[in-house]
Amino acid sequence: MKEKKTTPITIKDLAKELNLSPSTISRALSDHPKISQATKKLVSDKAEQSGFRLNAIASSFRSKKTKSIGIIAPRIDIDFHSRVISGIEDYAYKSGYHVIIFQSKDSYKMEKEILQNLQNMMVEGMIICLAMETKNFDHLKKLIKTKLPVVFYDRTPETFDTNKITINDFESAFNATEHLIKIGCKNIVHIAGNQSTGIFRARLEGYKAALKSYHLPLRDDHIFVTHSLSYQEGLTCAEKILELNPLPDGVFCANDYTAASVVKVLNKRKINVPEQVAIVGFSDYPIAQIIEPSLTTINDRAVQMGEAAAKMLIQHIQDQDFDIIDHQVITLKTELIVRESSTRKA
Amino acid sequence: MKEKKTTPITIKDLAKELNLSPSTISRALSDHPKISQATKKLVSDKAEQSGFRLNAIASSFRSKKTKSIGIIAPRIDIDFHSRVISGIEDYAYKSGYHVIIFQSKDSYKMEKEILQNLQNMMVEGMIICLAMETKNFDHLKKLIKTKLPVVFYDRTPETFDTNKITINDFESAFNATEHLIKIGCKNIVHIAGNQSTGIFRARLEGYKAALKSYHLPLRDDHIFVTHSLSYQEGLTCAEKILELNPLPDGVFCANDYTAASVVKVLNKRKINVPEQVAIVGFSDYPIAQIIEPSLTTINDRAVQMGEAAAKMLIQHIQDQDFDIIDHQVITLKTELIVRESSTRKA
DNA sequence: TTTTGTTAGGCAAATGTTTGCATTAATTAA
DNA sequence: TTAATTAATGCAAACATTTGCCTAACAAAA
């Protein structure tokens, strides 16, 4: 029953068959300039015809180039991350790299463990979004000291300088809040994300700054801090918002899940969105277009963020000129997408 | 400016320092029974203290075990796939494997190309969801002939037998339709997926079978076949449904995006869901809970599908007993989740 | 004492490719 | 004709680890 494992054809086999040396085969296969066109054709034809495949492991072993990059994301079944990763994979594939993906599940322990694995695997670079639990950055600093190219996205280290791709969360939040003010809101609530994470602090600050700059009062009971901006937490916040007196006339949420929850609860209570309460979310998740009324939100450029991260990383891997760069920070433009939830009749 | 590249510590270095042979170090590190506890401790302490890391590439090269599995999905920024992949990664990680991910973008050409790459990389197994374009299965048959363990999920080959994990699309669709019938619908429309794909054909058949088994007439103009079940296509279908005379009293959609579109359009036209038209979707995407009214749908077990695929694959990789198995098919139970869009007042 | 067995570890080959350097053949300049 | 140059290819080492087989040392059995 047991079939004999067919041993794969190697470069040596080809060499023997063609009466050439292994080195010539190797060079012909990688289009080396010192090999004649005739020989190259000979080799590639033979390779094709005999079903030869280059052993990538042996090749990596010898050349020290694995053509692989590691990704650590908190999880991949979240719209934002799956889009970033899609962008990374796209760009990487076009550049001849492949991606190895791990989920930290927002655990510090996992993050450290994965980092170890990835280094053993000799990836040529890494793209990382920090786990929420991560407060100690020693493992990351140590990693960077090894000179392995690393790029962080979205949730990035704050206590030291490194390569990052982010959006301007402060400004985006400012714009979102300003938009509410401009359509006439005077009493604006914010549903905030976990304050141990920089981007959510920045969004809160942006909200505050907008109020301040328009001389609107800042009320503590207008800020609702959640743990993970989940749909569930959004529902609870919405209930609490309804108890506020007077009822706010605008809500800026740090993501679209919570914003959608608020819309839903207000709809149920027959409170008109946007006339009575206008709502702005963050991230432009698919639901933003689908819910009724459709949701004004911030396009957070997830796919582009992935592409930019991959591009930056691969430049650092390949380009000599980048050796001189200590670290690089790219901030992507965001865009306020105005939809029904903040469009009041004139 | 250029820092000297610190050469990594190898097994040989450890051997020299401890006056042991490389083979002993290797065995100690992998907990070989023939090495004494004392030596193991010595070695692992020294390894720890000196920052040694085992070169996984060299190890793979020699042992022919890469501990990696390849995934080919149409895309990863779609809820269903990102959840499946999350399930795969989870299970694989626990079992000591890592995953390399590629997106075929539903292109046949890409699929073939990726397959080549993956084989060169010497992954120990592959998990594949077919590209929509793929009609010719030669590349896959050839792959399977190499004895490399492969598991397909969701969109699986139909012209030959192989390892698969699917749900019972026919039965799920039957149940969904039956549910509509049982709440009193007599005039049910189906929004179908691309009919070149087996699972969408099966869903259509399930719909038809349910009508038949309840002696309801089957009308051609009640079936709307879409290209990719997108939100946009859902909107167009919904408009066409409104032109039907009489207006249908139930809609079964092959996914939640189109279902959400229909809900949205009907809401806009002030047609009451579920009283006038009841709606059932498929897949239990996050939006299903968020839209108003919330959507009755089929839980398609995406995460479990990923876990099951990884489990099956890893068994085939590791377990001698599986050599005797030619192919294996697992069909997961689905679940009808009844929500507001099909709950009529008694 | 000799034989047998056991335990812990060493030797050296093997893995498939790449690459610096050497070599050969062919061409050109002198 | 010969030296110098160029083009095309070969040689052999190197990469870090694993593994089949061998051996030394010691203990137990005969």
TrEMBL record, chains A, B:
GO molecular function: DNA-binding transcription activator activity; sigma factor activity; transcription cis-regulatory region binding
Location of the HTH lacI-type domain: 9-63
Domain of life: Bacteria
Record key words, sorted: DNA-binding, Transcription, Transcription regulation
Pfam family for this entry, one: Peripla_BP_3
SMART domains hit by this protein: HTH_LACI (SM00354)
PANTHER family: HTH-TYPE TRANSCRIPTIONAL REGULATOR GALS, LACI-RELATED TRANSCRIPTIONAL REPRESSOR
Name the record gives this protein: LacI family transcriptional regulator
